[in-house]
Write a structure and sequence with these properties.
- The protein is an alpha+beta fold.
- It is built from two helices and eight strands, in the order E-E-E-E-E-E-E-E-H-H.
- The strands form two sheets. It has a five-stranded antiparallel beta sheet with strand order 2-3-4-5-6, with no helix packed on it. A three-stranded mixed beta sheet has the order 1-7-8, covered by helices on one side.
- Helix 1 packs across helix 2 (103-110).
């Protein structure tokens, strides 16, 4: 499992998004695009994962927070914030379930910049 939360200035996500993904071919990826902003997660052939173009270490964490998503690329930070080991119930909304059951992750995601 991999979960990525994004945080930016108020209202940054209120825009039209186009989604593209490919899970049956190499490399698997998911991208949400809108004018001036792309949210991207890509797994390379060696099994490593890139979030917003930055390689992340899944042995350290599988939940990440991207700070300043709508700022300049040089200011964007991809931060490991936790590890989820438990299964998420099929009827649950995964990002909400994690925030409701993992206090440390919720605190980090909800922390003011």
């Amino acid at each position: 499992m991999l979960m990525v939360y994004y945080r930016g200035t108020s209202g940054w996500h209120d825009r039209k998004w186009d989604i593209s993904s490919e899970f049956g071919k190499t490399p698997p990826f998911i991208r949400l695009s809108s004018p001036g902003l792309v949210l991207s997660i890509v797994q390379d052939a060696a099994g490593s994962v890139r979030v917003q173009g930055q390689q992340v270490d899944l042995s350290v964490a599988n939940v990440f927070l991207v700070r300043r998503i709508d700022g300049p690329m040089m200011g964007m930070l991809v931060v490991p914030i936790g590890r989820i080991r438990n299964e998420i119930p099929s009827e649950a909304n995964p990002p909400v379930f994690i925030l409701e059951t993992q206090r440390e992750i919720a605190d980090e995601v909800n922390r003011q910049q």
